[in-house]
TrEMBL record:
Originating species: Mycobacterium rhizamassiliense
Sequence ranges assigned to domain FAD-binding PCMH-type in this UniProt record: 33-212
Domain of life: Bacteria
Listed GO biological process terms: respiratory electron transport chain
Pfam families in UniProt: FAD-oxidase_C, FAD_binding_4
Name of the protein: FAD/FMN-containing dehydrogenase
Keywords: FAD, Flavoprotein, Oxidoreductase
Keyword Flavoprotein listed: yes
Length: 447
């Protein structure tokens, strides 16, 4: 391995071969999937990223790109004694342009840092995740992440208005325009958003920001019946001013209450967190909209910031409690709203048939039908028996095998369930054109 050459580019202190460090960097965020790596390289700027790629390509070394390593589908797990290329040093954030409502950020900047920069200028960044302190905007663009505000602002791709990419041949490409509507040629940023690092390494992004609403109102509502919750979700997702619409399994809320002291503020087998945001008070409007919903009791409503944060804690604490029985088995699924109740019924039955002691917990972004099914107490030796049948069930329900976490390594055998043969062939052709030797993120997306 050309370690000396790599060290001459990034500095000897940014080449790490310590086995313990590499082992820690070669495990998935869920703790279920492990790989192996030969070195960790931490470039300090885009030019260094490009040089590292060129050196690794010429030496026939596979490269796996790592950002905040919050992937839930083994998207950053190396398979071939890879060189791990970390974007963690590419973390600068430029000055916010308050007039054009945009900011430039390095790929390694965390979501929390971008949010702070936006809020300091009186603006809002459109994507929010529970993993905001560790997730990086480069990784989020690579997977086209969604999150808690998708129903209002859309996925990550709708926030990216320009980017810089180090291509697999070791050259740099920058798509940067100061105008909001630039229709000159191919929409290259869209090509790299959602590509999961298979076409190049995103090094910097121009990000869209949004005006900050002056009034918010948040509510958590309880439902005895999932169909009733979905009916309410269908109503709220099309309402002007909707800011968040989150499904929470009552069993999951019970678990956070038991282990974290964050119990549900209302009764119900299913909970729905709703937030409206606008430039005027939305409290009465929320009450009117809820008047026809089939709730099983009075909702808990937060008008002031402290009360809203307490209600949001019910949703955000879910990520903290999922590992209480060991690494959970995660299914990130996108479904038509009309299919969700049937999917949940059949998925629970399937899980019970395969693993007697398993505990299924569901939460997610109900406005888009993006759900996260987490199955607790599944031994590693039972995962295979459950995973394939669950993918089949998702496909039969008309869903996609991935909603916002990407395909990664874990779901690559199931890509054809969501993409037609010609579609996959076209994607492979793009991959071959940009990365003919297939050395970049070789374990991701394609078998």
């Amino acid at each position: 391995m050309p370690l000396e050459t790599l060290a001459s580019v990034v500095g000897a202190s940014h080449i790490i071969t310590d086995p313990d460090v590499l082992a820690g960097r070669s495990v998935d965020h869920t703790g279920r999937y492990r790989g192996r790596a030969s070195a960790l390289v931490r470039p300090g700027d885009a030019e260094q990223v490009a040089q590292v790629l060129r050196i690794c390509r010429d030496a026939r070394l596979n490269v796996t790109v790592q950002g905040g390593r919050t992937s839930l589908v083994a998207g950053t797990v190396p398979e071939h004694d890879d060189v791990l290329l970390s974007t963690e040093r590419l973390n600068t954030i430029g000055d916010v342009d308050s007039v054009e409502r945009r900011v430039e950020a390095g790929a390694g900047a965390t979501l929390a840092a971008v949010q702070h920069a936006a809020s300091s200028a009186g603006l809002v960044f459109g994507v929010d995740l529970a993993a905001r302190d560790t997730a990086t905007v480069g990784g989020m663009a690579s997977t086209n992440a969604g999150g808690l505000r998708t129903v209002r602002y859309g996925n990550m791709g709708e926030q990216v208005i320009g980017l810089q990419v180090a291509l697999p041949d070791g050259t740099l490409m920058r798509r940067h325009s100061l105008v909001r509507s630039d229709n000159t040629g191919y929409d290259l940023p869209a090509l790299f958003v959602g590509a999961e690092g298979t076409l190049g390494v995103i090094t910097a992004l121009d990000l869209r920001l949004h005006p900050s609403p002056s009034h918010r109102v948040t509510a958590v509502c309880g439902f005895a019946d999932l169909e009733a919750l979905i009916e309410a979700g269908r109503t709220f997702r099309d309402v002007d001013g909707i800011a968040a619409l989150e499904l929470i399994d009552g069993r999951a809320a019970a678990l956070t209450g038991e282990h974290l002291g964050v119990g549900a503020p209302v009764e119900g087998d299913w909970l729905l967190l709703i937030e409206l945001a606008a430039d005027h008070d939305q409290t009465e409007r929320l009450a009117d909209l809820l008047d026809g919903a089939r709730l099983c009791g009075e909702p808990a409503v937060g008008v002031d910031t402290a009360a809203q944060q307490r209600l949001w804690r019910v949703r955000e604490s879910l990520a903290e409690v999922l590992g209480v029985y060991g690494p959970p088995l995660k299914f990130d699924v996108s479904l038509p709203l009309s299919a969700i109740a049937g999917f949940v019924r059949d998925a629970v039955a399937l899980i019970g048939d395969q693993v007697d002691d398993a505990l299924p917990l569901l939460f997610g972004h109900i406005g888009e039908g993006n759900l996260h099914l987490n199955v607790l107490r599944v031994p590693l030796d039972r995962e295979k028996a459950l995973y394939g049948p669950m993918m089949d069930l998702i496909a039969r329900c008309g869903g996609n095998v991935s909603s916002e976490h990407g395909v990664g390594t874990r779901k690559r055998p199931y890509l054809e369930m969501s993409r037609e043969t010609g579609d996959i062939a076209a994607m492979r052709a793009v991959k071959a054109a940009l990365d003919p030797t297939g050395y970049l993120n070789a374990a991701v997306l394609f078998d």
